[in-house]
Amino acid sequence: MELLKERIRKDGVMKPGNVLKVDSFLNHQMDIELFNEMGKEFKRRFEGVKIDKILTIEASGIGIAAIVAQYFKCPVVFAKKSQSINLDGTMLSAPVESFTHKRKYEVIVASKFLHPDENVLVIDDFMANGCAAAGLCQIIEAAHANVAGIGIVIEKGFQHGGAMLRGRGYRVESLAIVEEMDPETQTIRFRED
Q1: Which residues bind 5-phospho-alpha-D-ribose 1-diphosphate (predicted)?
Q2: Into how many domains does the chain fold?
Q3: What CATH number is attached to the domain comprising 167?
Q4: 143 among the known binding-site residues?
Q5: Does 152 reside within a domain?
Q6: Is 161 within any annotated ligand binding site?
Q7: Residue 156 marked in a binding site
Q8: 146 assigned ligand-binding residue
Q9: Spatial contact of 27 and 58, defined as CB atoms under 8 Å apart
Q10: Taking a C-beta distance cutoff of 8 angstroms, is the pair 93, 118 a contact?
Q11: Does residue 93 lie within any of the structural domains?
Q12: What pTM value is reported for the model?
């Protein structure tokens, strides 16, 4: 998606340790016009796929998932990173390790929100090692629902999470796949579609 790649080149900041900061438009402050274009693109890429629900993970995935859900006319469910008194009933959970936060979480979804045979699309803002998406797929499968696909805004192609998930047979659609980035020169190279 050229519009997204241009925005990453213009406003993204590369830092040592394979960190790409896009907090000015994606995961702290959100550019809703850009989100709308990304929502349209995910709808185009998954055209003809029956989507009953979208599943994401708190917190950064919620904004883009909500916009994407408008195009599929379906609800969004988000996995919580901690148990709270508001959660009741049977829970589905999976371990997830965050590349950005260097922390492990047990993400939780109330089973009443995912039903057998539903087609669930995973949407998230970033993919590095693929742990978050893999954990969400594990939750979907534990609910006896179907993983309809995985939609990622920015995939770090050099970190192999996408390759791992594709190798497991999941359909992964990433709007921008970063092949290389150099924090010294602030240059970035994307995989061509």
Answers
A1: 128-132
A2: 1
A3: 3.40.50.2020
A4: no
A5: yes
A6: no
A7: yes
A8: no
A9: no
A10: no
A11: no
A12: 0.94
- Examine residue 184 and state whether it is found in any structural domain, yes or no: yes
DSSP 68-119: HHHHHT--EEEEBSS--TT--S-EEEEEEEETTTTEEEEEEEEGGGS-TT-E
Distance CA 18, CA 22 (A): 13
Residue 65 resides in a domain:
yes
Record the tokens describing residue 110, joined without a space: 């109330």
pLDDT (tens, 9 = 90+) of the chain, 193 residues, equals 999 999 999 999 999 999 999 999 999 999 999 999 999 999 999 999 999 999 999 988 999 999 999 999 999 999 998 766 566 678 999 999 876 667 788 999 999 999 999 999 999 999 999 999 999 999 999 999 999 999 999 999 999 999 999 999 999 999 999 999 999 999 999 998 5
104 is in an annotated binding site: no
Taking the C-alpha atoms of residue 119 and residue 149, their distance in angstroms, rounded to an integer, is 9
- Cβ of 32: how many Cβ atoms within 10 Å? 11
Is 137 marked within a binding site? no
Q: How far apart are CA 112 and CA 87, in angstroms?
A: 11
Domain that holds residue 26: 2-79+113-190
Tell whether residue 134 is among the known ligand binding residues: no
Q: What tokens were used for 65?
A: 């998932």
Instruction: State yes or no: 131 annotated in a binding site.
Output: yes
pLDDT at residue number 193: 59
